[in-house]
Specification:
Blueprint lengths: L2 E4 L3 H10 L3 E2 L7 E6 L2 E6 L4 E2 L6 H8 L5 H6 L4 E4 L6 H8 L3 E5 L3 H14 L5 E3 L3 H5 L9 E4 L14 H9 L6 H10 L4 E7 L12 E4 L3 E7 L1
Parallel strand pairs: 1-2, 1-3, 6-7, 6-9, 7-8, 9-10
Antiparallel strand pairs: 3-4, 4-5, 10-12, 11-12
Helix pairs in contact: 2-4
């Protein structure tokens, strides 16, 4: 899938150079387009879906103010150094950072990384560190003392079949490249002997592998399975 950047400002030119993407003065509606709308880097798809990362949007802003009550935060326990191996749009990384965790997030898609970093720019802070890395490859290099917890949020398989998927998730599915290795991701994480592995699943969904979790925290829509080494 080809992605273009609107040639309308020096920062657009710089972004095109950073991402090695073509600039365009006219988009014919194929592939995807990146452009700055009201200072926010925005992606637009051929289906006219658009999205920009906003960490202070209504719902997320409410959640970050009460981050300690979030199921994802409770699942992390008292450990402070968290590797979010499947960043996506960075919402869980942001919530964990607001709850006091030191978060490092991995994402293989350079486009997703650019959009999330732009969200951090407009937030005027960098609440969590971002590395553009392939998750399995990175995790396989870790020692047990590198992090206190590894967090995995693989895409739910039923999302791809649903007509009700929100537009941000539809766009993420177009861009993301890590969901094909879900089982391998957990197996690799468990081999690190890092103390705690947390996996996000649908509330009533199956576990990611046959191995039973040691504990689970369930929210309205999601369940967080916890594995101890």
């Amino acid at each position: 899938m080809q992605i273009y950047i609107v040639n309308d400002s020096p920062r657009a030119v710089a972004l095109a150079q950073d991402l090695s993407l073509p600039l365009t003065d006219y988009w014919n509606g194929t592939g995807c387009l990146l452009r700055y709308d009201d200072d926010a880097l925005t992606i637009i798809t051929a289906e006219a879906l658009s999205y920009s990362v906003n960490f202070l949007s209504g719902r997320l802003n409410y959640r970050q103010k009460r981050a300690s009550h979030e199921a994802v935060v409770k699942a992390m326990g008292q450990k402070k150094r968290v590797l979010d191996a499947t960043m996506g749009w960075g919402r869980d990384s942001f919530l964990l950072s607001q709850a006091g965790y030191d978060v490092c997030s991995l994402e293989r898609s350079s486009i997703v990384v650019a959009l999330v970093k732009d969200g951090q720019r407009r937030l005027q802070e960098k609440p969590f560190k971002i590395l553009q890395q392939e998750a399995v490859e990175y995790i396989s290099t870790l020692n047990q003392n590198d992090f206190d917890c590894i967090y995995l949020d693989p895409m739910f398989p039923d999302l791809k079949k649903s007509a009700l998927v929100k537009k941000d998730m539809q766009i993420l599915q177009l861009l993301a490249t890590h969901d094909e290795q879900q089982g391998n991701l957990l197996d690799t994480a468990l081999k690190t002997n890092i103390k705690r592995i947390v996996v996000k699943r649908p509330a009533k969904g199956s576990t990611l592998t046959l191995e039973k979790p040691n504990h689970s925290y369930t929210g309205k829509a999601c369940r967080f399975d916890v594995y101890f080494s």
